[in-house]
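Q: Please design a sequence for this.
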């Protein structure tokens, strides 16, 4: 009987546990560009240094890129697991005719890594 009670408690707590969204779903939303670092000399660029804002609007199948609130591009994408130049397999944003970008989300920050040598890592913050 004691074991049965433990099983019931386990089931109740398991069902009430918060289910985290997958990486793909958590990409959805609007993101403001904070900075990018990279290139041959490891240069850091920001909205202030470049005198422009960049916003990404990501849905389940399309990424829209805005510069200074003007739509610059609208592209279909997919998420695939591929071998990364940074090591191991990583989830990648794949857009036709563009280099893939691996990504990581920590809290409300999105890190996009260009999957090419001497390219950039960009940081974005979710717009609430």
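A: Design:
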């Amino acid at each position: 009987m004691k074991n049965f009670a433990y099983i019931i408690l386990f089931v109740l707590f398991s069902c009430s546990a918060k289910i985290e969204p997958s990486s793909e779903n958590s990409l959805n939303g609007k993101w403001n560009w904070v900075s990018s670092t990279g290139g041959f000399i490891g240069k850091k660029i920001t909205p202030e240094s470049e005198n422009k804002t960049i916003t990404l609007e990501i849905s389940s199948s399309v990424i829209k890129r805005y510069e200074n609130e003007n739509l610059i591009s609208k592209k279909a994408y997919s998420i695939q697991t591929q071998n990364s130049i940074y090591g191991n397999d990583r989830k990648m944003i794949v857009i036709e005719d563009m280099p893939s970008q691996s990504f990581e989300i920590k809290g409300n920050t999105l890190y996009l890594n260009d999957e090419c040598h001497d390219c950039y890592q960009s940081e974005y913050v979710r717009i609430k």
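Q: Thanks. Anything notable?
A: Strands lie at 29-38, 43-45, 54-58, 62-67, 70-76, 78-83, 89-94, 101-106, 109-114, 120-126. The mean pLDDT is 83.
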